[in-house]
Amino acid sequence: xxxxxxxxxxxxxxxxxxxxxxxxxxxxxxxxxxxxxxxxxxxxxxxxxxxxxxxxxxxxxxxxxxxxxxxxxxxxxxxxxxxxxxxxxxxxxxxxxxxxxxxxxxxxxxxxxxxxxxxxxxxxxxxxxxxxxxxxxxxxxxxxxxxxxxxxxxxxxxxxxxxxxxxxxxxxxxxxxxxxxxxxxxxxxxxxxxxxxxxxxxxxxxxxxxxxxxxxxxxxxxxxxxxxxxxxxxxxxxxxxxxxxxxxxxxxxxxxxxxxxxxxxxxxxxxxxxxxxxxxxxxxxxxxxxxxxxxxxxxxxxxxx
Amino acid sequence: xxxxxxxxxxxxxxxxxxxxxxxxxxxxxxxxxxxxxxxxxxxxxxxxxxxxxxxxxxxxxxxxxxxxxxxxxxxxxxxxxxxxxxxxxxxxxxxxxxxxxxxxxxxxxxxxxxxxxxxxxxxxxxxxxxxxxxxxxxxxxxxxxxxxxxxxxxxxxxxxxxxxxxxxxxxxxxxxxxxxxxxxxxxxxxxxxxxxxxxxxxxxxxxxxxxxxxxxxxxxxxxxxxxxxxxxxxxxxxxxxxxxxxxxxxxxxxxxxxxxxxxxxxxxxxxxxxxxxxxxxxxxxxxxxxxxxxxxxxxxxxxxxxxxxxxxxxxxxxxxxxxxxxxxxxxxxxxxxxxxxxxxxxxxxxxxxxxxxxxxxxxxxxxxxxxxxxxxxxxxxxxxxxxxxxxxxxxxxxxxxxxxxxxx
Amino acid sequence: xxxxxxxxxxxxxxxxxxxxxxxxxxxxxxxxxxxxxxxxxxxxxxxxxxxxxxxxxxxxxxxxxxxxxxxxxxxxxxxxxxxxxxxxxxxxxxxxxxxxxxxxxxxxxxxxxxxxxxxxxxxxxxxxxxxxxxxxxxxxxxxxxxxxxxxxxxxxxxxxxxxxxxxxxxxxxxxxxxxxxxxxxxxxxxxxxxxxxxxxxxxxxxxxxxxxxxxxxxxxxxxxxxxxxxxxxxxxxxxxxxxxxxxxxxxxxxxxxxxxxxxxxxxxxxxxxxxxxxxxxxxxxxxxxxxxxxxxxxxxxxxxxxxxxxxxxxxxxxxxxxxxxxxxxxxxxxxxxxxxxxxxxxxxxxxxxxxxxxxxxxxxxxxxxxxxxxxxxxxxxxxxxxxxxxxxxxxxxxxxxxxxxxxxxxxxxxxxxxxxxxxxxxxxxxxxxxxxxxxxxxxxxxxxxxxxxxxxxxxxxxxxxxxxxxxxxxxxxxxxxxxxxx
Lengths: 305, 408, 486
What we know:
- The complex is a heterotrimer.
- Chain B is of the alpha/beta class.
- Chain B has helices at residues 3-23, 75-96, 111-123, 136-146, 163-166, 177-190, 204-219, 237-242, 257-269, 308-317, 324-344, 353-365, and strands at 61-68, 99-106, 127-131, 152-155, 170-172, 195-200, 223-228, 249-252, 275-278, 293-296, 368-369, 380-381, 394-398, 404-406.
- In chain B, α4 links the parallel β3 (127-131) and β4 (152-155).
- The longest helix of chain B is centred in the N-terminal third of the chain and has 22 residues, at 75-96.
- Residues 19-56 of chain B have low confidence and may be disordered.
- By secondary structure, chain C is an all-alpha fold.
- Chain C folds into 2 domains: 40-327, ABC transporter involved in vitamin B12 uptake, BtuC (Orthogonal Bundle), CATH 1.10.3470; 332-452, no CATH class.
- In chain C, strands 1-2 form a two-stranded antiparallel ribbon.
- Chain C starts with 14 loop residues before the first helix and ends in a 14-residue tail after the last helix.
- The model of chain C has no long low-confidence stretch (mean pLDDT 80).
- Classes of the chains: A mainly alpha, B alpha/beta, C mainly alpha.
- Chains in contact: A-B, A-C, B-C.
- The interface between B and C is large, with 63 and 68 residues.
């Protein structure tokens, strides 16, 4: 039982990160029918931005502000950087291609992803950086959860993710802009005819998706400690899977998919072996794509002839 | 002009540039590099001198190549190797009055790159020997090219067993995976281990070591559990949860030390008090968990007082070093001395590069440095197939203050 | 209305669409005579011209350059194959390198001491090409149900799975299968399979770079001829139809699923064949050969050259394959950077007087910055230039920072990118004004960092090129712009 609980906590931590990332993919796909390959790099730069804030404020061993403020500022820094990159991507890489055949923005996305990876390699080198979180928040700062103890930082990550997802759901269903986002996802032309500023809505979508990715980046740095220029690519693949499994274009789908994939990874490692972890996740994706391509909560796509 | 034609002209100009670049020879104007690393090819000031007299006063003019991952994902290995090699050449030229140039080839740890660069080294008739490449895959890619050219190549960082047998002109000055395994296993057994968990990172270096450790330990009656991760994973919590609490050692033959740090942290997070035993890939500042044990093919250079001057001289010019550096220095010194011996015997023949290279290779094979001549203060010579003769691994424990204490 | 060029008006026909071909053919500008002459040659003669030039290449260069030529030709073959899938059939296949790897590994397994098996080349090659084709069939099965982006992800994951399988083959429980022995090490794991044999065709041993070069060249020429014929045939038309509008094609009784499969198979077979040559030339196969960078390189070649155009993708492959070679040597890299910058500026800023003003402003700005910086802070000019002819020229003008001042270069890089993006947003004199500091920063970053780091620069260049090409000229250098009729 203890083992199962432990793996569940592991899976939820991972799943929270994937869910936040998958949200970005799903929202952008819903609105533009575009898979934003470069989303992983946005997340990666968020993680580095958080590291930058950490270093500027004294580093893990001697921070100049209290820990809770430090972490908040790290999140803030990541949000600023990630949103900037996301909005720039939309404006310069994707907007010119809105009417082009679908292959064009995909290739542009691949190119942008590659460019950003190279930029990170150029700026930060190939060595990874570490947040050294245990120095910041000792392992003994933990919460008991049944037979196991859960480290405070993990709790923070899971709780923050849940809070953000709840906020996002409320935003999408209650506010005007949120409803506008849903409208544009549903039918862009009709929304435009109803007087919605489609460009603005798209920018807001990218902004929010990228901000979430930035937060996810800092979370990963906090919990796992190691950030490096390729982390976006690998997390991106998993988050893709999560978004597709949950139903791409669907916000609750992305959240569900993220958590599911995180749990799948944890349980498969726990009960089968870490060796098969990636194969199992990819396998899930292929099965879902072949059996139910719209995902668990997705809408079947209607192609108008 | 119409917009369309712009691009035609661009295409035309780019094509012309490419043609000019390709047809242009390398002997245009290049200058030697100083501090910052650059992927330049440098040429000697003239054809290599043929010495007819055996006078030691004639400066030896020749080139040696260095292949390694100077940029890209493994740059932390290649950069340090390059810097130490440059340092070695600088010191040697200063001491012996020779004029040996170091020519760089950046493999980016990609065997396809290695296969393209090796012919370039062969075609440059001034190059009489090569340091590197790093990485067993790249060694396998360049071996078929250097062997027929009779070019000696000394790799300071490739540990796959059996390579020097395959390639006649390969020399290696590091002990191989088949030494590290038994030494590490013996240490664990001596510590009374009953249960060991081995996790490899799916690289050839790792799986080889893991396999050896497993068989050695099982022969000694230790229970071994295994699992495997990818180098790009950042979260090992799920895996850590599967490690039984009563495990004595977690053996990590990993190349990315910072991953080891994460695993160690997560072990502590889950309250598991298990010692981590890392292979030489974990011998790095990125892995710093007090109480852990690492293996290395040399004690930390900082712990060798006789080489303190060398280290200081190096650090004055370059900022960083790690375990890969001094070994590259040693390899370069071996090659330089071999080249010099050939020089003094009048053997550098700019007309026949192959003959010169064969002579150099023969001299490398005869290398016999005593302990006070080498940077690591251990004698250096090669076996008949080109592997390092002797060569042991050192086990060190990481102290709370970050220093290393040799324990085995 | 003025009467349309080229003939009388026909009832019921859309003139503008009709004349699109003619408009393309009327070249203007000062390269027009050359281009019209080139157009006069039939494709056969054009091919012969280029092929002869390529055949003459080994006589003028050293062995190592011939080796580079082989890489270029192999990339051209891959680009031709990818062109079939992406350019002609419009299927976004991100798993293409899995076919390449499959062919290479298969060849390595059957013609080395690994198993050991020493199949004769004449047997191995056809078997491998067919086998890769079959793998292509398997990968095409999902394409029946998935389109566009979904297909892209699927194929991407397929290639990742392929790599994982290759590396971990020994650890997976294949030995539970009846006919597989306990320690069958099929793929050599992460070590790869070295010691692969050369091609031997009917007693003729292909074992020098020159011979491999000509073999590859012959194959490229044959491929171009073959593909050209397919393109002009019904199959080619069916692919075009399926690319432009799958649903309409299906309703016009084009067997869409079979055509998709055929595209995959042809692409896969070409990649498999290329893989065998690659394995033979490298005398070994290693997992590191099939990383994502290669996929991006092939895509860059196809997109840059013009997807859909045979000559385009070959040209793209040549350009893309030569870039890393040029970048490797700082003096040549300097040509590429400064030359490219100058060309782009001259061609995009009109009238030419503005370019001169830009140049003058740039020079003045540079000296100003340098004067200010060197007074405030000595390290700003402490570094040494990398040695290319151009950087010696700019040595007195740009700040060459001490190696320790890394952070400044990072900020300069970000600022330069932001500057270039901003330049696209403004017009007129504002553009010139903004360009001056932006270009200065770009040169700063180049001289201080990019020149040394060839692999990063290459990646930046390819990635950036894909984005820019898509936005500015999606049809590549030699492709034709697709006319979207709404």
